[in-house]
Amino acid sequence: MPDENGHIPGWVPVEKNNKQYCWHSSVVNYEFEIALVLKHHPDDSGLLEITAVPLSDLLEQTLELIGTNINGNPYGLGSKKHPLHLLIPHGAFQIRNLPSLKHSDLLSWFEGCREGKIEGIVWHCNDGCLIKVHRHHLGLCWPIPDTYMNSKPVIINMNLNKRDYAFDTKCLFNHFSKIDHQKFSRLKDIILDE
């Protein structure tokens, strides 16, 4: 149910042909049942990976959409002419140096720790409860100029060699296929051309 501000906490299913979800639909290919996902590279935790993931691998998960036209684009992805969007599975990025839940420790962590250059943290408690702390809960700004996600190199790994895909020439899957196996020093450096 929507709260008093109209926000629907949790998740909302995306309708394929609804213009309201056009940016969500740009990262999902319904014909080939794949999605463009950003995650850690499986063999190198210091490397991010953009990959095409079967939709069946994403069942029972929620994902965050990031990109050019989402929430002010804090990661600097794409451009107006060539928008770039990606999905991130919730929980895909584990925090190694987790602060305690004390206000002063959280502030210090968000302001002074490299890992703290993020929008927020969700704690998954043993009893099933989730606790979310966003930077603005602590009076801190978001977006910030130098995010943690933009401090890591990223590789494109489309994993499309199992079958022939005939993508529309203007879709993100086609653009990423053209730069498959390329490595970039950070997310912001990925430039898509026609």
Automatic annotation (TrEMBL):
Enzyme class name: ligase
Catalytic activity: ATP + (ribonucleotide)n-3'-hydroxyl + 5'-phospho-(ribonucleotide)m = (ribonucleotide)n+m + AMP + diphosphate
Any GO BP annotation: RNA repair
GO molecular function, one term: RNA ligase (ATP) activity
Cofactor: Mn(2+); Mg(2+)
Keyword Cytoplasm on entry: no
Lineage: Eukaryota, Metazoa, Chordata, Craniata, Vertebrata
Keywords assigned by UniProt, alphabetized: ATP-binding, Ligase, Nucleotide-binding, RNA repair
Organism the protein comes from: Pipistrellus kuhlii
Keyword Metal-binding set for record: no
Functional description taken from the UniProt entry: Functions as an RNA ligase, in vitro. The ligation reaction entails three nucleotidyl transfer steps. In the first step, the RNA ligase reacts with ATP in the absence of nucleic acid to form a covalent ligase-AMP intermediate and release pyrophosphate. In step 2, the ligase-AMP binds to the nucleic acid and transfers the adenylate to the 5'-PO4 terminus to form an adenylylated intermediate. In step 3, the RNA ligase directs the attack of the 3'-OH on the 5'-phosphoanhydride linkage, resulting in a repaired 3'-5' phosphodiester and release of AMP.
EC number: 6.5.1.3
Name of the protein described by the UniProt record: RNA ligase 1
Pfam family, one: RLIG1
